[in-house]
Amino acid sequence: MQNLDRPRRHLALALAGLAGFVDAAGYLSADRYFVSFMSGNTTRLGVELAREPAAAVFPALLAISFVAGVLAGALLSGRIPGRHKPPLLAGVATGLAFAAWLFGAGDGRAALIVLAAAMGALNNSFQSGGKVSVGITYMTGALVKLGQGLAALLQRRTADPWGDWLLLWIALACGATLGALAFVNWPGVALWIAAIVAAVLSLAARALPGRAP
Question: Of 119, 88, 89, 97, nearest to 200 (Cα)?
Answer without folding.
Answer: 89
